[in-house]
Design goal:
The protein is α+β, with helices and mostly antiparallel strands. It is built from 8 helices and 7 strands, in the order βββααββββαααααα. It has a 7-stranded mixed beta sheet, with helices on both faces. The two termini are 47 Å apart. About 4% of the residues have low confidence.
């Protein structure tokens, strides 16, 4: 069970922002540019080739080993992890006829989720979000051809293990279906992974709501702002993905069969549901900010009320003390504070001051000010 602890998420805005890694100005379109930073040690290429009766899974040591699957009657899924080796991407693109502009977008990992249609394949970009000590994102670039699916990702450890397990065990219809159904299964897993993430934020918002009432503080305000920012980033991810899926189910193409479009409609419904949840949480977070400001204002009003009452009580007491602090000499005139010579003068003044303070406290309490 994913748990959002106090002070999380650690995710920065840049994790799921769309900062493209642009080529140098004037570079020819479709020019591939290597990543300056390696996020994995080496490029890993895994291949799963299957039909209803056969299944093969292997990790190849060179990209040339993938070429034998180009014209097989089976469905082939080639997954490339690591984007720093341009030669691998170029060779795959040349062998499978992948468009150079799409390959360039594979390396620009700040791409907005989108769908591009070419003559013999679709190019689909989605963003895979996972919870690993904070919100982590990876761009999944997917090519859908007549009998193949090729995926590129920058980081190790994706969310596709359940799909791989279904392929291994031959459960359900996935082994009987074509490549378009495999593409659907991968996109569906990316979308469904958002539900447990949203559940984390929902639970934390409930906790923060209680904190706002009991003990609002600056850290609470910072967490609300952080969650609100993350929800905005999630919305920026799922909104274009929803349009991608909607376009896939509406496209008239030989690459996507009518049977698969039925399942794509279900994924589209999931994206609509996710957008609604995000909007609900954003409204809740915005309302919590108002509650926080109201709570702080109420606390300040309570403090000011106490200080005002204290000051009000001491005003007449200060007046009395000030009068008797003028130090007029009673021996020079009978009008100069004759009570200074009274035997009980000092206790009488203290008693009068205490009685006045008590009277004012009782009066304030009766009026409901205390």
């Amino acid at each position: 069970m994913i748990k959002l602890r106090r002070g999380e998420p650690k995710q920065e805005v840049s994790i799921i922002s769309y900062r493209k890694r642009y080529a140098e100005p004037g570079t020819s379109p479709g020019t591939l540019r290597a990543h300056e930073v390696r996020r994995v040690e080496k490029v890993t290429i895994s291949v799963i080739d299957y039909n209803e009766d056969t299944y093969e899974e292997r990790v190849v040591s060179s990209v040339e080993e993938c070429f034998v699957y180009r014209d097989t009657p089976t469905v082939t899924w080639i997954n490339v992890t690591g984007l720093h080796d341009i030669e691998v991407i170029q060779k795959l693109g040349e062998k499978f006829g992948l468009h150079p502009l799409a390959l360039e977008d594979v390396l620009n990992t700040g791409q907005r989720p989108k769908l591009d249609e070419y003559d013999e394949h679709y190019f689909i970009v989605v963003r895979e979000l996972q919870w690993q000590d904070g919100l982590q994102a990876d761009q999944i670039s997917l090519f859908l051809g007549p009998k193949y699916v090729i995926t590129f990702q920058e980081l190790e450890g994706d969310v596709f293990d359940p799909v791989r397990e279904r392929l291994r065990k031959g459960k359900g219809r996935i082994r009987r279906m074509a490549a378009d159904y495999l593409a659907y299964a991968l996109i569906d897993k990316v979308v469904d992974e958002l539900f447990p993430i949203l559940e984390v934020y929902g639970e934390r918002l409930e906790e923060l709501e209680d904190e706002l009432i009991e003990r609002p503080g600056r850290q609470t305000l910072q967490e609300i702002h952080r969650i609100k920012r993350d929800l905005l980033a999630l919305r920026r991810t799922i909104w274009p993905e929803r349009e991608v899926i909607n376009s896939l189910q509406r496209e008239e193409s030989h690459l996507i069969r009518a049977e698969t479009k039925i399942y794509l409609r279900d994924v589209y419904d999931h994206t609509v549901q996710i957008v609604e949840i995000i909007e609900t949480y954003r409204d809740l977070a915005a309302g919590m900010l108002d509650v926080y400001l109201s709570s702080i204002s109420n606390r300040m009003n309570d403090i000011m009320k106490v200080l005002t009452i204290i000051a009000t009580i001491f005003i007449p007491l200060t007046f009395i003390v000030g009068v008797y602090g003028m130090n007029f000499n009673p021996t020079s005139s009978p009008w100069n504070m004759p009570e200074l010579n009274w035997y009980w003068g000092y206790p009488a003044v203290l008693a009068a001051m205490a009685a006045l303070a008590l009277f004012m406290l009782l009066y304030f309490r009766r009026r409901g000010w205390l």
